[in-house]
TrEMBL record:
Family as reported in the entry's similarity comment: Belongs to the beta sliding clamp family.
Species per Swiss-Prot/TrEMBL record: Futiania mangrovi
Main subcellular location: cytoplasm
Annotated gene: dnaN
GO molecular-function terms, A-Z: 3'-5' exonuclease activity; DNA binding; DNA-directed DNA polymerase activity
DNA polymerase III beta sliding clamp N-terminal domain boundaries: 1-120
Chain ranges passing through the membrane: none
UniProt xrefs under SUPFAM superfamilies: DNA clamp
Coiled-coil stretches noted in the UniProt entry, renumbered to this chain: none
Protein name: Beta sliding clamp
Subcellular location: Cytoplasm
GO biological process, one term: DNA strand elongation involved in DNA replication
Length: 372
């Protein structure tokens, strides 16, 4: 294999694929990236057996061929080469070394046989549809903070994607929960998505696809089966296994009878919560919200540091009540509210609270209270 290509192109592709590769691997071949050169293109593939990402870049191919090289080392080498450099990759099957040249720099990396590299078969994708990259970004950003990290409840370790009808119109809905808070956002279902199986998209794959979307313009082609999901965008194809489990019936935890409405200035509320929670050494410390007509008092008491209170004017006309919430959860939800006003729908100090904006957003959040 003999090829040459621009440093910037190679660096961008390596940045995309190497992040899938785990830093510590018990299987040596999984530490490598597969390089395949043919017909004026270089294809780079990385996998951890659950996720596979393939990116293709233009290259001057003197001699086709393929090999595997250490992903993180190769990325660090290319990253440290001078901007604008022309990078040459030369693999001699006899020596089993990959020679890298750029200007006066020379590197030689050990390789492993390409035949040992695992291939992730996509399988039969039953549903295919397209959606704008910005729409996919919205689905991910407004839900992923609520994904559970508790491995015992593995079926909560991802975003649940499914289609359903709302007011007679098909929607694509994304849901995530860790048992303490729930995030739900929906968009009009793209053509071809109707009837797709409900799938749980794993946490690591969510993070990887989110990074890739930032570098891609236009639509993303999505293909789904019972066990895998594949995203095709530009020169990148990203495939991930799905979580084999049953997502709980989240509809049951979304209250519908909360009759107390609280409207707060989103930015001011977020800043106030952040300030009063400063006295607590633990971000999970409860913030007490004391409500009365037109006024909200936020307070935190820490046995180690002291206490803090702050008052703010709000839109509230219900009965006086006190309720406590995890400070970090409040801040994360407030960060997803797109309008100037955040709306809390409450019932009592022990019941889940619904949070949403006051506009036309289809995002909704449910937050469990804490004892204060």
């Amino acid at each position: 294999m003999k090829i040459s290509l621009e440093r910037a192109q190679l660096l961008k592709a390596l940045a995309h694929v190497q992040s899938v590769v785990e830093r510590r691997n018990t299987i040596p071949i999984l530490s490598n990236v597969l390089l395949q050169a043919s017909d004026g293109k270089l294809a780079l593939t990385a996998t951890d057996l659950d996720i596979e990402v393939v990116e293709t870049v233009a290259a001057t191919v003197g001699q086709g061929g393929s090999t595997t090289a250490p992903a993180h080392v190769l990325y660090d080498i290319v990253r440290k080469l001078p901007e604008g450099a022309e990078v040459s990759l030369d693999h001699d099957s006899a020596s089993e070394r990959l020679e890298i040249r750029a200007g006066r720099s020379r590197f030689s990396l050990a390789t492993l046989p390409k035949d040992d590299y695992p291939a992730m078969s996509a399988g039969d994708m039953t549903h295919r549809f397209q959606m704008a990259g910005t729409a996919l970004k919205t689905l991910i950003d407004k839900t992923r903070f609520a994904i559970s990290t508790e491995e015992t409840r593995y079926y909560l370790n991802g975003i649940y994607l499914h289609t359903m009808e709302v007011n007679g119109a098909p929607v694509l809905r994304a849901v995530a929960t860790d048992g303490h808070r729930l995030a739900r956002v929906e968009l009009p279902a793209p053509d071809g998505a109707a009837g797709m199986p409900g799938i749980i998209f794993p946490r690591k794959a969510v993070g990887e696809i989110r990074k890739l979307i930032d570098d891609v313009e236009g639509d993303v082609a999505i293909a789904v089966s019972d066990t895998k999901i594949r995203f095709s965008m530009g020169s990148v194809v990203f495939t991930s296994k799905l979580i084999d489990g049953t997502f709980p019936d989240y509809q049951r935890v979304i209250p519908s009878g909360n009759d107390k409405r609280l409207g707060v200035d989103t930015a001011a509320f977020s800043a106030s919560v952040d300030r009063v929670s400063t006295v607590s050494s633990e971000k999970s410390r409860a913030v007490k919200m004391a409500l009365e007509d037109g006024r909200l008092t936020l307070s935190v008491t820490s046995p180690d540091s002291g206490s803090a209170t702050e008052e703010m004017e709000v839109d509230y006309a219900g009965d006086a009540m006190e309720i406590g919430f995890n400070a970090r959860y409040l801040l994360e939800i407030a960060g997803q509210i797109g309008s100037e006003t955040a709306v809390f729908e409450l019932q009592d100090a022990g019941s889940p609270t619904v949070v949403h904006d006051d506009g036309t957003s289809t995002a909704l959040y449910v937050l469990m209270p804490m004892r204060v």
